[in-house]
Design a protein that fits this description.
It is a single chain. The chain is of the alpha+beta class. The protein contains three helices and five strands; from the N terminus they run βααββββα. It has helices spanning 26-31, 37-56, 98-105; strands at 11-15, 65-66, 72-73, 78-85, 88-95. It has a three-stranded antiparallel β-sheet with strand order 1-5-4, covered by helices on one side. It has a two-stranded antiparallel ribbon with strand order 2-3.
């Protein structure tokens, strides 16, 4: 679905629900230790999608933590987004390049 809107260099993973068995890194568990179950499922499935998208870039499994404004903290050299809404979760990532470096500086 979402990959139809993005460039071919963007790797996407999406889920139409919250599959059982999704796991978090211990550092991520701490981030959702005291949230409502629905938010925990959104977060967990979003991070699962992020791991799958990063793997499609050839990157190892790493925890995608949360920055000061709630944004995902991607590994060095990666830009991306995690989205979630009722019944849908997705992550889109790509390797950071000159366009992203310029955009961030402006």
């Amino acid at each position: 679905m979402i990959e139809d809107l993005l460039s071919a260099v963007v790797e996407v993973s999406e889920s139409l629900g919250d599959p059982p068995g999704s796991e978090l890194f211990p550092e991520q568990e701490l981030l959702v230790a005291h949230v409502l179950e629905q938010r925990r499922r959104e977060f967990t499935t979003g991070r699962r999608c992020a791991r799958q998208a990063l793997a499609r870039l050839g990157l190892p499994r790493v925890p995608v933590l949360v920055g000061p404004s709630g944004e995902p903290l991607w590994p060095d050299g990666v830009v991306g987004a995690i989205i979630h809404c009722a019944g849908y979760r997705a992550a889109a990532v790509e390797r950071a390049g000159p366009i992203w470096s310029t955009a961030v500086r402006q």
